[in-house]
Amino acid sequence: MADNKGVHDFHVNTKEAAQGFYVKGAAHLDWGMQRRLGHMFQPKSGNTVMLAFDHGYIMGPTTWLERIDLVIPPLMPYVDVLMGTPSIFRADIPPEERPGLCLRITYDSTVLNDDLSCGGGIACDIESAIRMDADCMAVQCFIGAPGESRSLELLARTANVGLKYGIPTLGVTAVGKDMVHDEKYFLLATRVLAENGANIVKSYYCDGFERVVSACPVPIVIAGGKKLPELDALEMAYRAINDGAHGVDMGRNIFQSDCPAGMAQAIGKVVHDGYTAAQAYEVYEEVRNR
Q1: Helix/strand/coil for 141
Q2: Mind giving me the DSSP string for 174-212?
Q3: Per-residue DSSP letters for 217-285?
Q4: What tens digit of pLDDT does each residue of 138-160 get?
Q5: Is 126:161 a contact under the CB 8 Å cutoff?
Q6: How far apart are the first and last CA of the chain?
Q7: pLDDT tens digits, residue range 226-254?
Q8: 247-250 vs 48-52, strand pairing mode
Q9: Neighbouring residues of 285: CB distance < 8 A, sequence distance ≥ 6
Q10: Is residue 79's pLDDT more than 80?
C-alpha cells in the first residue's frame, strides 16, 4: 500500500502538459478516437451536455420515462450526447438526426436486488457498437463494493477493444448506498477508472472537486443524480464547471423538470457559455413561459 501521508500538490488550474487536441487527455489518441470525442465535446468550450435516459435497465419504466419515444427526441436539439441502452436507441430514438451516441454496454443487477453491484457483464459487444455508429461505450464500475473487481475487468476489456476500433470508453463511478460521497472516495474512484482505460469519467460533484478534477487525466462529467429544484441543479452544474468539470450528464434534472426543453437549454448555457446559475435560470424561465 502506498504511503499517502504528507502534502499533496494537485496543481489545480494548471493545464495538462500534452496539448494539440481540445479534449483533455486525448492529445495522443488516434484520429478516429479524436473524431468521436469531437462528436461529444464542443470545440468552443471543450465541454459536453449529455442526456442520460438509461435508468430503465435496472429500474424498469421509471417516472417520466414510461414513453421514451415521446420524452427524449424533443430534447435532442439541445444536448450534445444521448446516453442509453442499445435496445432503446433502436426502438425509440430516430437515427436520421441525433447528437453524439453513448451506449450503455454493460448490465448490472436490478433494483430487486439489495446489492446492485453483485453481478454484471457485457450486454453489447464491439461489433454491435460499430454497427450502431457509437461515439462512446459506457461501463459502470463499483469502486469499493463487492462487484469492484468484475466491473474493473469489464472496463479494461472494453477500453482495450475500444482502442482497437477507435471508440472511446466512459467509466461511470457507481456510488453504493454504504459509500461516502466525499473527496477521498472520488479522488480514488475517478483515478482508478482513468488508469484502467476510461477516456471519460462520469462522477458526482463533491467538496474539494477541483482537486478530484486536477488529479484525473481525462475529462470528468458530473452526474445529475436525483431530481433537484431547477435553480439548485443549475448551481451544481455551475460549481462543477467552475471547478474544472468538462460537462454534465443529466437525466432526471432535465426530463423531470416542469420544462425539460428549457432546462436542457439552461444547462447548455452553463456548460458552454459560462452562464451563472442565476443567468441560466432566466433562460429556463423564458422558455417555460413561452
Answers
A1: strand
A2: ---TTS--SHHHHHHHHHHHHHTT-SEEEE---TTHHHH
A3: SS-EEEE--S---HHHHHHHHHHHHHTT--EEEESHHHHTSSSHHHHHHHHHHHHHH---HHHHHHHHH
A4: 999 989 888 889 889 999 999 99
A5: yes
A6: 58
A7: 999 999 999 999 999 999 999 999 999 99
A8: parallel
A9: 262
A10: yes
| Contact assessment for residue 173 and residue 141, using Cβ atoms and an 8 Å cutoff | yes
Whether the predicted pLDDT of 6 surpasses 80:
no
Cell numbers at 284, concatenated: 429556463
Residue spans of beta strands (DSSP E) within the chain: 48-52, 81-84, 100-104, 106-108, 120-122, 136-141, 169-173, 200-203, 220-223, 247-250
Rg (CA), the chain: 18
Q: Across the strands, what pairs with 141?
A: 173
| C-alpha distances in Å from residue 96, one per residue of 35, 76, 90 | 19, 12, 12
The 10s digit of each residue's pLDDT in 206-221 is 999 999 999 999 999 9
Q: Which three cell numbers stand for residue 137?
A: 461505450
Q: How far apart are CA 82 and CA 155, in angstroms?
A: 20
Q: What is the DSSP letter of 93?
A: S
Q: Look at residue 122 in the predicted model and tell me its pLDDT.
A: 75
Question: Which cell numbers hold the place of 218?
Answer: 481525462
Cα gap 76→81, rounded to integer Å: 8
120 closest CA partner among 98, 153, 80: 153
Residue 203, SS3 per DSSP: strand
Cα–Cα distance for residue pair 229/256, rounded to 1 Å: 10
Catalytic residues: 202
Fold that domain 31-219 belongs to in CATH: TIM Barrel (3.20.20)
Q: Which three cell numbers stand for residue 98?
A: 441525433
Whether pLDDT at 55 is above 90: no
Using alpha carbons, select from 152, 222, 146 the residue that is nearest to residue 181. Answer: 222
